[in-house]
Amino acid sequence: MGLNKSGSINRRSRSFSLRRLLLGDPLASAQIIHEKLTKAKALAVFSSDALSSVAYATEEILFVLAASSIYALNLSIPIALAIAVLLLIVGFSYHQTIHAYPEGGGAYIVAKDNLGPVFALVAGASLQIDYTLTVAVSISAGVAAITSWLPFLLPYRAIIAVITVLLITLINLRGVRESASIFSVPTYLFIAGMLSLIGYGLIRWLFVGELPQVHITQPIHADLTVQGITIFFVLRAFSAGCTALTGIEAISDGIPAFRPPAADNAGKTLLTMVAILTIMFLGITLLAHGIGAAPSQSETVLSQIGRALFGRGPLYVAVQIATALILLLAANTAFSDFPRLSFFMARDSYMPRQMGNLGDRLVYSNGIIFLGVLASILIFIFNGETHGLLPLYAVGVFISFTLSQLGMVRRWLRLRLPGWRGHALINAIGGLATLVVFLIIASTRFLSGAWIVVMLIPLFVLVFLRIHLHYQQVATQLSLERYGTLHRMRHPRVIMPIGGVHRGVLKALEFARSLSPDVTAVYVETSEEEGKKVRRKWERWGDGVRLVILPSPYRSIISPLLDFLSQIEAQRQPHDIITVVLPQFVTARWWENLLHNQDAWLIRLALLFRRGYIVIDVPYHLAD
Amino acid sequence: MGLNKSGSINRRSRSFSLRRLLLGDPLASAQIIHEKLTKAKALAVFSSDALSSVAYATEEILFVLAASSIYALNLSIPIALAIAVLLLIVGFSYHQTIHAYPEGGGAYIVAKDNLGPVFALVAGASLQIDYTLTVAVSISAGVAAITSWLPFLLPYRAIIAVITVLLITLINLRGVRESASIFSVPTYLFIAGMLSLIGYGLIRWLFVGELPQVHITQPIHADLTVQGITIFFVLRAFSAGCTALTGIEAISDGIPAFRPPAADNAGKTLLTMVAILTIMFLGITLLAHGIGAAPSQSETVLSQIGRALFGRGPLYVAVQIATALILLLAANTAFSDFPRLSFFMARDSYMPRQMGNLGDRLVYSNGIIFLGVLASILIFIFNGETHGLLPLYAVGVFISFTLSQLGMVRRWLRLRLPGWRGHALINAIGGLATLVVFLIIASTRFLSGAWIVVMLIPLFVLVFLRIHLHYQQVATQLSLERYGTLHRMRHPRVIMPIGGVHRGVLKALEFARSLSPDVTAVYVETSEEEGKKVRRKWERWGDGVRLVILPSPYRSIISPLLDFLSQIEAQRQPHDIITVVLPQFVTARWWENLLHNQDAWLIRLALLFRRGYIVIDVPYHLAD
After folding, report:
1. How confident is the model over A484-512, as pLDDT tens digits?
2. Which of A453, A524, B314, B329 might form a disulfide with A395, Cβ 3.0–4.6 angstroms?
3. Is the whole-model pTM more than 0.80?
């Protein structure tokens, strides 16, 4: 049986050696408990998405402001402060969610619990789009960090990004604990690098009074015509900066991956993360202002800051590499969360069930692969350009924020737990703030790409509902209620089309007769001469089994046979099943199969959608 | 039963209406006798290949000569005369073949009869390559006739050529008699056009003393460096001109398509054809010389002659169109001969049997489709350029000429029929002449492309022999000699893997029990909880059938099942068959199938090459 552990593993590792090399040995279900993360590792895995957004959020604000005039760039500071306030609001709001949903309180689950299935699906769709964009944006931005340092790689950014997605997919198919071990170091390297940069920059600014100014080689202007500083324009820049908040919800969705007590650990990790994020975002925006950074075709704003403060030396290179690495980690967050969300939705029958299958490395392999493919396609379409992808990004995020927090408000009002008024107020402020921000983003960035997400979300919801309907219908049709007892069928009626009389046919005949005493062989006669030969041979070898010969003046094999079967169909009792036994060669080499006619296959195809038929191939294995 | 003729046709025409529209109604086998050709129609179908070669043979001679110097062009006249002599020799030699093989005496059959199977296969391979090239060359040259007239079409020649091949393929799938009716007119139009052109030209030359000189816009030089007039060089030009002989064998291969007395009619048609061909080839070469024609990138030599003599008026256009049309017909010859040769070779088990199937329009549909595809690929590779294809062309032709005629010599020596000495001499002269020409072509055109054919022929022969071996092995293995009587098998052992307990599974169980009293259901348990549920439900619904539960700590469905089957395999008697019944959903819409796991399909795949298994899908049709 090979069910003892070591025997089974040996057997498998022989047959799947490449797979094992890439993915590691299979893990038993019982090992699942060990795959839990410490706070430090969890910060590495779940915070990287949020923290890494400082690599593009400031730049995106400047990107919008630069379209107006060089003076507009000064607006980046007040805008960043507004975003920092929003960050704190959302952070505290989510802190409450974590404690209310220690099993994992992603927007989908919170909305399902409190707002009903349709809002849950809207949240689910938003999150799925969000996760896919997290991968595409983070990898593109990570590649941009590298191409800022090594500009000769710029033309290859899309292909580099796609290959990177592939590698991350593979790492995730190996399982989450190992990826946490691999990825812990770079997160802390990035945090250390950013804090050093900001600390050094601010101290120098404070003491020297000014910062070295950066020289930009290829400054860009956005695709809009130059315009005055209007409210709409400021809001657009604000929307662009809101990409800093992406990923802040990751922890609340991944609580079960924390070591117990999971909720406490997750809550603390969340607040730590928000603090670090706020400091880094404000610091970088300040420094960008200080050195006179401007968005450029070939160099990120972060690279400009590093270059202005550290020169092109090893410190600068270290910052660029750390930035690229944390962006890889950010993409990795999505590879934890997307499959987990898909698992929840598949459990509720809104996504294909296969999304809920744990692979043999205890990860949801199908979700991981699906995400990898989707993100690669997105990168390919947008040619690995961050500015193209970012307008799509924050829309879905803020929909899920809003639904999650309004769902929490509803929950407090419903359960009225101790202190519910204060809790409800915090979530209400969070929910209203993110709702307003969503409306701002959707309206000011609509034409830049937000429309795509606004259109996709209802489409996704429809697909989810359709899948749900299918599973419901199947469940009804398969239900055993009112089934009664098992119907005792009499012997099946067996029809066996033959193309001649030889060993293969006689083997099939032997099998057919073991199934039922009611066997009829059928031969389609395309030439009278051949027909006579078959009849003669059947008399000698057919052992008394009935043979029907169907003339075929037009030399078709299939149509006379189907006509004959229709005739039998007309005679049968309801519930009777017609069993068609097809003698079939299995050649020793695949190409040899091309040397034989494919009639058996055509017959099977023709009967595929006819009810009341069962088609049995009886293979005759030809020797080498 | 729908076996009465009209009923059957109605039934079919409903289901295959597009097919019927393109191909016509099916023809009954009994109608085959009517599909025979008169001499006049046969000339149209079978001579077009040979006659149309005047459209490129002269040009190809000039193409080679032009590489040397403008004076070398004068050599075209003696070279053409040598080729004319060769033409007459080969013509008389084949005339004897026709009378000796009234059933159709293609090189394959003559070689098989007299030289043995290996030479026959060499001839067969040569002919198949030759026919494929006939299509590619003729269509390319036909398109060149059109682009000479309408130069703006030049960039699209490859795509025009491929579409044309497609159309000819369709016409041939309709059947040969109708294509003869369609194509009779243009052959005679071409002959009339050419003879008028030549007659008018020669008379004018005779009386006026000189011809108008043509002005060439884009004369070309071949890809060789300019060289002196050496023997090798003259022989190369001669080889190029030998493409005039291509197609001369078509009649001997197609005698059964003639009205009786077939051999007489075919022989007369052959001699008529050789006479017309010789006159046209010599005439065109003379006129080309007279008007100072030279090969050009954008205009054929024939077009230059027409333009010089007729101007750009309607007569010129008529000649160009007639040329294009007869080249279409030439391609069509191959569509008669290639499938017929494939039929002969399939009958001898050297090609896949399907090549021998008469389609419902009484043509060998598979051969026709195969040729159409091959020729399209060739045209695509050579971008529809005649000069690229021609060096490959004559090699195979002359191999088949040689084998056919040497085979005839062997036949005369063997049978010693009245007058055998004279007959043998004629064939010997023919055979030796074509052997020498083959050697000249292969050596002087080797690097220009002849090497491809020289390499392909042995490869083809190996494939034919391998196919033959396979069919022989199959015949031995299927032979009923020493089979004894039918083995009476006891009830099969039925194993039914289940994924749960529901209506679909119970339906399959009902069927399984109708096959055998020995049924075992198998459930692979990936979670203990689910396992318990299945066990409980089975107790209620399983009607006493044994249920085996296989634990799967690594969550794989397939491996524990295969291990279990191996265990059963080890216990069984020799000749016992393990029957695996797989309950399977058939969803109402194809995409719904994606929502269910594909385990049944994976199990079937895993058992595909294991002997002693029969796998039965029991469909459960889900309602809409």
Report:
1. 777 777 788 999 999 889 988 998 999 99
2. A453
3. no
> B411 is written with which tokens?
């036949």
Contact A513, A506 (CB under 8 A): no
Q: Does residue B277 fall inside a structural domain?
A: yes
Q: Are residues A181 and A293 in the same domain?
A: yes
B 423-482 residues with CB below 8 A of A? 467, 470-471, 473-474, 477-480
Residues B109, A45: Cα–Cα separation, whole Å: 76
pLDDT for position A13: 38
Shared-domain flag, residues B505 and B400: no
Residue A556's domain spans which residues? 493-621
| A103 min Cα distance to partner chain B (Å) | 20
My answer on whether B124 and B232 are in the same domain is yes
- Domain harbouring B546, CATH code: 3.40.50.620
pLDDT digits (tens, 9 = 90+) for A68-98: 766 777 889 999 999 999 999 999 998 988 8
pLDDT over threshold 90, residue B608? no
* pLDDT reading at B427 higher than 70: yes
- CA of B483 vs chain A CAs: smallest distance (Å): 8
The span from the CA of B42 to the CA of B176, in Å, is: 10
CA distance B43 to B276: 11
Structure tokens that stand for A537 in this block: 């041979």
Last residue of a domain, one of B438, B472, B506: B472
Q: Which residue among A514, A543, A592 sits closest to B490, beta carbon to beta carbon? A: A514
- Looking at the fold, whether B267 and B184 belong to one and the same domain comes out as yes
Identify the pLDDT of residue B582. 92
Considering the domain architecture, whether residues B190 and B82 belong to the same structural domain is answered as yes
**Which stretches of A561-604 are assigned E, i.e. beta strand?**
578-586
- Measured CA to CA, the distance from residue A296 to residue B384 in angstroms comes to 49
* Among A485-494, B91-100, B301-310, the least confident range: A485-494
Helix (H) or strand (E) holding B35: none
Sheet holding B546-551, edge to edge: A546-551, A519-525, A493-498, A578-586, A613-621, B613-621, B578-586, B493-498, B519-525, B546-551
- Is A477 a residue whose pLDDT tops 60? yes
Confirm whether A11 is domain-assigned. no
| Mean pLDDT value across residues B47-60 | 91
Longest dimension (CA), chain B: 109
* B134, part of any domain: yes
**Are residue A328 and residue A391 in the same domain, yes or no?**
yes
Alpha helices in A292-364 (DSSP H): 301-310, 314-347
Q: CB-based contact (8 Å) between A231 and chain B?
A: no
Residue A171 lies in a domain: yes
Mark whether A395 and A317 lie in a shared domain. Answer: yes
Q: Which of A360, A486, A534 to mutate: most B Cβ within 10 Å?
A: A486
At residue B605 the predicted structure's pLDDT band, cuts being 50, 70 and 90, is confident
Number of domains in chain A: 2
Going by pLDDT thresholds of 50, 70 and 90, the confidence category of residue B357 is confident
Please report, rounded to a whole number, the percentage of residues in chain A having pLDDT higher than 90: 45
